Records
---
Amino acid sequence: MQITGVDQHHLEHQAGGSFEPTWIPGYPQGTHEVELFEIETDTGLTGYGAMPSFAGGMDFSEPLSYFLLGEDPHDVEGVLRKLDSINLVGPRPWGVEIALWDIIGKDAGKPIYELLGGSASEIPVYASTGEVMPAEERIEYVGDVIDAGVGAVKLRVTEPDHIEIVREVREAYPDLPLMVDANKGWAVRVMEHERQWSFREALEFARGLEDVGDVRWLEEPLPRHDYEQYARLREATDVPIAGGEFNDGIHHFREFVKQGSLDVLQPDAALATGIKRADEVAAMARQHGLEYVPHTWTNGIGFVANLHVMAANDSPWCEFPMEPPWTPDVRDFLLDETVDHEDGVVTPPEGPGLGVEIDDSLLE
C-alpha cells in the first residue's frame, strides 16, 4: 500500500455564541476552526486526521506531500522519522499520524483500540470547563452537569485567589470529585499574555486545594517545560499534579518521569504525541505507577483518537469538554455523528480505524 494523495481542508464552524477560554487570554472564542488532513492510498482507502486552527487557516498540504507520497501508511515509525523534518519548521505531525492509524484500522477491518490491544471499555467522563466563572454561576453549571449524569467536574482558574471559587463549589457539592486547571503550561497569545504563577503561588494554591479536599489533580500550575519546579511542587503537596497536554513528543514525558514531575500524564494525541507515542506514554505511566488521562479539547477527530488510546490503556477518566456554546455538537461539527457520553460514560466508536465518518458536505 502507498500514499497517493495528501489533501488539506480548512473547516470553520460558528458556535452560536462565545466563551473566553483561559488558554487564549482576552480572546472570546465563537468559531471552531480545524485543519482536516485527508490521506489517500492506491487501494482506495482514505484516512483522516486533524489539528486545531485559527485566523483563517494554515496550509501545509504541499510540503506534506513531499514527505508522504509513495510511503506505506503502515510504516508509522518510518513516516514519523520523515515528518520530524516538518516538525522542525512547520506544523506538528500528529494530526497526520492519526490519519495513518485510520487507514491501518480500515485496512485491518478493526478499530484502533483493538489494534492497540484494548477493548471497547466504558470510561467515566469529567465535565471540562473552559473559562473562569464566578462561583455562583459555576455552582449552577455543576448542577446542570450532574443532572446530565456526569460525576466529576474540572474547574478553570487563572489567579491564586480563585481558590475561593473552588472552595465555594466544594461547599455546594461536598462529595463531587473535582479537578482544577490553572492553564499555566502554555497559551495562545493573540490579544494579551497570560500571567504566570511563581513557585510560591503554585504551592500556596496547591495547599489551598488540600483544604478543599477530594481534588483529583491540579493541572499545569507552571510552564510546561519546567520539570524541576514541577518535581519540587509535587514533593511539597498532597494534591496530585497533572500536565503535559501540549508538550511535543515522547522525550518530554521521559523527562517528566525521570524527574518525578507529575502524577498524571496528559499528552493529547492530536497536539503532543499522535496515537503511537500516546500509547507509549500510557505504558510509561503504567510502569511508573502514574495515571494516563489525556487532554482532549481539540475537535471530533482528536477526541476520538484520544478515546481509542484511553480505551486501550484503561484510563480512569475521559476529559469531556462542556462549556456552552462549546458543546459536543460544536466539537464534532466535522463528523457525521456526534460522539456523546451516556449517563456519564463514553466508549470509543467500534467501526474500523477511527470509527467515524466525515461530513462530506463540508468537503464540498
Note: Residues 269-287 form the longest helix (19 residues).
---
Amino acid sequence: MLLVLCVDLDDDLGRKTGFSTPVIGREPVKEAAVALATADPEDSDVNVIFQGLHIYDDLDDRDESVEVAVVTGTDGGDVEANRAVGREVDTVLASLSTAEDVTTLIITDGAQDESVIPVIRSRVPIDGVRRVVVRQAQDLESMYYTIKQVLDDPETRGTVLIPLGILLLIYPLALIGSALEMPGFVLGTTSALLGLYLISRGLGLGERLDVAVEYARRSLYAGRTTLLAYVVAAALFVLGGVSGLNTLEGVEATHGDVGAPVILAALVYGSIQWLAAAGVTTSLGQITDEYIAGTLEWRYLNAPFYVLSIAIVLHAVSGFFLDEAGVSYLAAALTAGTLLGIVSTLAFAVLESRYADGEETRTPDRA
C-alpha cells in the first residue's frame, strides 16, 4: 500500500480550522482542505493537501492500493514539530488495516517541511517526495528558508553578518569631521544603525542579553546575593573610573603633558581602591551564594585575599611611577602582596585537607 502523506509542519490546518490531526481518508482530507482554503486561501498548505488528493485519485483510478492522510507538527520550533509529526505518522500507520507492506509518498510545500523526512523515514519506507509550490513564486519559500537557516546558524551568521555590518559602518565613519548635510546625515545614520544591527545579530548579542536578563530574574527571585553584589560592584567601578580620571587631571595639571606609562599609572593609582572594593564585593557575594547552596569549598575563600594582594601591588607600582611612593614602600608592598596570596592559599589548602580527612575518618565510624 502506498500512503500519500501531506505534511503541514507548522500546523496551519489545526490552528486555522480547528481540525483534529492526523486526518486520514479521502473524504476527511477533502473536508480539511476545503476548511483550510476557506480560512486562509493564500496558505500554501492548501495546495499540498489538494495535491495529495489529486495523487490519491489518480492512483485509485488505476486500482492501486492507496491511502491519503494529513499530518501536522507545531509552531513551536523544528525539533518539537518533527516529534509531533513522528507521533502522528505512528498513529496513521497503526490505523491502516492492510497486510501489505506500506510505503509513503511525501507531499510538502518547501524545504522547511522536508526537514521532517528523516523522522518519517525512520518509521516507513519513502517512495518519493513531491514539493508543491505556486508557479508564480517558484522556489521563493525555499530561498526564504535557506536564508533563515543561514541567519540562525551561529558560525555562518557571524561569517556573513559581521563583515557586512562593518562595511555599512564605513560610510558614517567617513562622514566624521565633514559637513553633515541632511541627505548625508540621514543615509549615514541609517547605514550606522543597520550596520550595528547586523553586527549585533552576527555576534548573537540578542540571545546573550536574553540569557543575562533571565539569569538576573532568576537570581532576583531566588534571593541570590550575587546579583546585589554585581550591582554594587558596577557602582564602585564607575566611582573608580571617575577617581582615576580626577587623579590623571591632577597629574597633568602638575606636570603638563605626560607619557602613556604615567597616564596609565595615574588611572590605576586613582581607581585601584575602588576596583579592589568591587572585586571583594563580588567575591564575597559569590562565596555567600555557594555557602547557602551547600557547594562552598575552602579554596573559594582565596578570592578576596587575591584581590587585595593584586590591589596592594598595583597601588605600589603606580605610586612609584607617580613619585608618590619610594623604593622601600614598593618593596614592602610587593612583599606583602605576595605573602598575603601565598599565606591565604596555604591556609585554606590546609583547612580543606583537614576537613576532607575528617570526613574520611568519620565515615567508617558511621558505617
Note: The first helix runs from residue 12 to 17.
---
Amino acid sequence: MKIVTYNVNGIKARLERLVEYLAEQQPDVVCLQELKSSDETFPEAAIRDAGYGAVWHGQKGFNGVAVLARGQDPIERQRGLEGEPEDNHSRYLECEVDGLVVASIYLPNGNPRPGPKFDYKLRWIDRLRARAQVLLDAEVPAVLAGDYNVIPNDDDTFSVPAMASDALMQPESRRGYRALVAQGWTDALRSRHPRGGVWTFWDYQAGAWQRDAGFRIDHLLLSPAVADRLQDADVDKAYRGREKASDHAPTWVRLS
C-alpha cells in the first residue's frame, strides 16, 4: 500500500502533472495540499477519470487539502481542527480508507516572523498535536501526511545559514514538531534515511532545483500500528524536474 503526500502548488495549474503521476505510480492514497481552489472548482471529473475517488476541503486562491483513494471514495471523518472557531483556513482533512485513518495536513508557513503569522503557526501545531493525541488514544491505525512547513533537523536542509532566520527552522517550530512526534509517532522518511540529506522541496528561485538546494518539510507520521507495517519511505524526486512541476516532490510510504 503506497501512501503519498504531495503539495501540488495549485491543482488546476498542476493537474496534468498530477494525473500523470497517478497513472505512472498508481499510489493507493494521495494527500494533496495547497490546492488553491474553491470547493466548486476542484477538478473532480479529471480525478475520477484517473481512477480515484476524492474528498476535498478547498479555499479560493490559497490553502486547500484533499485525500484521494484509488478505486474508491475516502470516508470523511473531520475537516479543520478544534481550538479556534474563527479559523477559516482549509488546512486539515481527515479521512478513512480501508480502515486506515489518513489526514492531509498543510501547516502554516509562519513567515514573516516574529509576528501574527508565526504565532498562528505555533498555535496550529498545538491544535494538531491535540488531535493527534485523540487518534493515538483511540488506538486507530493512522497516518498524518502533509506539508508541515517545518525543517526538523539541521541535516534536513541544504544550508543551515540560508534558512536560519526562516520560520520553518526556528527553535519553536522544531520544538512543536518534535513534541508531536514524541507522542508516539514515527517520522517515516527519517526512519528510512536517518542521516538526513533527503529533500522534498526546491524553491523556484535562484536555481534551487538545478543546485539541489532543497530541504525536507513534507512528512508522513505513522501511528504505532502503522509503523509496524512500514516497508519503505522515499521521495519521487524526478517529478520535481518535469515541466511546470510543483516546487514539492511527491513523498511516500509503502506499508505491508
Note: The first helix runs from residue 15 to 25.
